[in-house]
Amino acid sequence: MTPYFSSRDTAYRSPFGAVEEGTAVHFRLCLPREWRCCRAEILISCAGKPDRQEDMFWAGQPDHSHEWWECHFTPDTAGVYRYGFKIAWGMGQAYLTACPDGTAALWGAPGPRWQLTCYEKNFKTPDWLVGGVFYQIFPDRFHCSGKEKEKVPSDRILRQDWGGQPNWQPDETGEIRNNDYFGGDLKGIEQKLDYLASLGVTCLYLNPIFEAHSNHRYDTADYEKIDPLLGNEKDFRSLMKAAKKRGIRVLLDGVFSHTGADSRYFNRYGRYGEGGAYRELGSPYYDWYHFRCWPEDYASWWGFVTLPETEELSGGFSEFITGKKGVVRRWMSAGASGWRLDVADELPDAFLEKLRQAVKAENPDGLLLGEVWEDASHKESYGHLRRYLLGRQLDSVMNYPFCNAILQYLCGGDSTAFYNTVEGIVENYPPQVVRLLMNHIGTHDTERALTVLGGPPAAGRRRSWQATQKLTEAERTLGLRRLRLASLLQFCLPGVPCIYYGDEAGMEGYRDPFNRACFPWGQEDTLLLRWYQALGRLRKKLTPLKEGDFKAVRGNDDIVCFIRSHGKESLLCAVNRSREFTGVAVPAPFMSGEPVLGEGSIKNGMLTLPPLSGAVFAVGNSTL
């Protein structure tokens, strides 16, 4: 059936996807002649601009039963535009509205519109990450060098049982303090750089490393000091230098929406003497925070009094973080290649713009990547549409939509929902953003991918239940097979795959703190590890996985199949989530495709995959 319109087909909308401001976009409708359409209009809206309604013109017939109606629209300024179509016909007027797959539905009233993202001229993102591999490390739990720790606060619990279950129960006061430490440190990371290189890693993302009084360190106590359990600035510089020699860059976690109450800036508990905003009205840090009634009543992150919110645009805080001698530039000058921003959607636009200016002033090739859990191109917070990806703020984001699509598909969802999510992101995000997407399938904030794919859902169960859970042999076998498929998709989709430390070793665990256990050195699942190493080689060798176009190959609810192409090189990536042999017809060029990874065969134009398997085939020059 011929669609009336499809935003993802260049026969109807060209060019595809997000465009640079000033780019003419061609729109084309294919309407049945029996409708006797006498007028067609495009309806366009954009926040802060008056709505537009422009006529389309009749442009001929592709066949005896259809006719074309066309127009051009040129977005003159960056923004997120919404568009739909209105037609006049023998029965009055009707509207073409957007479906999840980008096609159009006919309605008698206005409905969902398509999105056209327009970004600023000269919006450039770093080239060095393209085609690479991220690796996320929770520093306390990755590797302990054995180096003696100095100046460690006495209220920390130092564990001697590497691999033991992290503390999760409240103390005698009813609080969960997150104050048990296993001793992972920066030197430990440095000692494992060759291991990371064997996975094809090109960029480390480190959870917070600055002084803080919890093992997760999202309650910053001093932005200018490395936490003493992790080492010191000398250790930091040594890690940066050693990583650089192996072609690995380092991304730091920037936690700027709040600090710890137990910090030199707020100092609620007096750890840092008599100063601090909580203890002294005249403190230079007083205007960093919002006191409704000093000192007890203050704004805090999600109501946690241990995490007072910062006033990011106050002169003192803004200069301290983004100034010429500020935190952002200081640690980049010491060797970091950029920042991942914690809860980026809780940072004001003006502050994000200052952060970008600071990063690019220190290094034009620096990376600024944000934590956003939804489609970041049309995320709303602070009561308005955010402008993360239009050129003045972020280079890219964590890709939770892809993560959710992969896990849901493998756990029983159909391929259509998967394609709609992936194609929607590729359509809505600027291409220079897409190529740098952090494609994870699990982080420190989510359950381990292996547990999601093999075990029973947590479904809101309490920590007491989560603490006792371990995958059965059958659950683990299923989870491992699905994890191979999840990682294959993760490594082959547009963007940059991000391995959460230990996923490649077969680590399990429900949510915090069970997803933050110690890396099982010497007890890795070797078959899974070899699989991840093979995926790393795939990323390094095959050009289409760097910046190749994405095209879905539809036809079977159980199989996800897509093409990545760049120039004369093309790859066909396919995954069968069912427990039976199943197949899908492939485009003509792949009838003679060469297998480069995984299981499966192509015969007589049909790709057949064994149960719970995946494969990559190549044509052109794409060979390992």
Commentary on this structure:
The chain has 624 residues and is an alpha/beta fold. The chain has four domains: 13-119, Sandwich (Immunoglobulin-like); 134-248 and 311-541, TIM Barrel, CATH 3.20.20; 258-310, no CATH class; 545-619, Golgi alpha-mannosidase II (Immunoglobulin-like, Sandwich). Helix content is 21%, strand content 26%. Strands 25-22-21-18-15-12-27-26 form an eight-stranded parallel β-sheet. Strands 2, 4, 5, 8, 9, 10 and 11 form a seven-stranded mixed β-sheet that branches. A five-stranded antiparallel β-sheet has the order 28-29-30-35-32. α5 (327-333) runs parallel beside α6 (349-362) and α12 packs parallel to α13.
Can you give keywords for this protein?
about 625 residues; Immunoglobulin-like; TIM Barrel; 4 domains; 8-stranded parallel beta sheet; 7-stranded mixed beta sheet; 14 helices
How are strands sequenced across the largest beta sheet? 25-22-21-18-15-12-27-26
Strand content: 25-35%
CATH architectural designation of the largest domain: Alpha-Beta Barrel
CATH superfamily of the largest domain: Glycosidases
Number of domains: 4
Please report the number of helical segments.
14
Oligomer: single chain
Unreliable stretches (pLDDT < 50, length at least 5) are: none
CATH classification, class level of the largest domain: Alpha Beta
Q: What is the SS-derived class?
A: alpha/beta
Shape: globular
Mean pLDDT: 96
Q: Provide the gyration radius in Å.
A: 26 Å
Q: Biggest sheet: strands, sense, closure?
A: 8 strands, parallel
- Span between termini: 40 Å
Helix proportion of residues, in percent?
10-25%
